[in-house]
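Office hours follow-up: a student asked to see two folded examples consecutively, so here they are.
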Amino acid sequence: MNKEIITQLNKTSQGLHEQAYAAAGLSKLLLNELLGEYNGLNTRLDEEERTHLATALHLLTTSMEETADGVVDTLTDESVLGGG
């Protein structure tokens, strides 16, 4: 590959990597807000409603973490830039 192309790919990869970490940080803030709301709602909900809300939050958290991990793994995989 042309050295200029590789340099541009590396710059693009670094930018995407930084954006992925920023998105993960925002996701964590959002989850903290949701958990705060959950804690407030938890006292006003019955057992079944609490269970449904806890399950939904767990699924959301797991999905967001897996997505963030996948993005970071993809961006840090050297084979993406032809080096692996």
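And the second, which I mentioned at the end of office hours:
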Amino acid sequence: MSSIIKNYRTLQGNIISIGKEQSYLQVETNSSSTAIAVEEPVEQIDLAFLEEEAKKEAMKIVQDAELKAKAILEQAQVEIATMKQNIEAETTAYRTQINEEIHMKQLQAQEEVDSLIKAAYLEKENIIKQAEPEIVELVAALVHKIVDFKLISGIEWLTLFVKQAIEKEQFKEKVQVIVASKMLEENEEALQEAFKHLPVEVELICDSRLSCTSCKVESSKGGITYDIKEGLQKMLDELQLLCIKG
């Protein structure tokens, strides 16, 4: 090989020049140009050796590039993982903050509802308390009307009173039931029928001095007088007294 050899292609690069007078050769790869020193004259250079050296140099360059790329990739993965952790931490903190705010708003809303309920209850109590005297008066008026238009014309209250008096006093002998003349005239048969079921004998007697709302139950042991109007009035008086104390 007495002349310069140019552009000899290897697997990983091109041999661009071989010096005749100087013991070196220049090899160009895809990324660099490398000079390889040799001791033998150019005429004795083995092309296979040159190709092998060029391959080694090219492989080294490729390996260096791969290592750099791997390092860059690993660094990128670390940064991505860090960013992901930061995002997750920020998201968790944000969710926690939102949940706390929602919880606080729920507590505030519940407190407001409780306050409104309490205020409404107190207002209702005040209204009822203020209206109690009027309610009692209304009830009293209604009771009097009921007594005047219902009980006076009926015998239910009378039969109930006689029965309770006999049971309370434990009468064992004949008793006299004394009522107003009008009561006896209008209800004698009904009273006789009602008193048949009592445990003692009952004799009906009229007394013109009695009102249609009063009666007497007498026996040899004593007697009891009762007026339904007086009883109801006493009950209403006690109710009014309780309202005043309340």
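Two things to take away from it. The beta strands are 8-9, 13-18, 24-29, 33-37, 175-179, 202-206, 214-219, 222-227. The longest helix spans residues 47-151.
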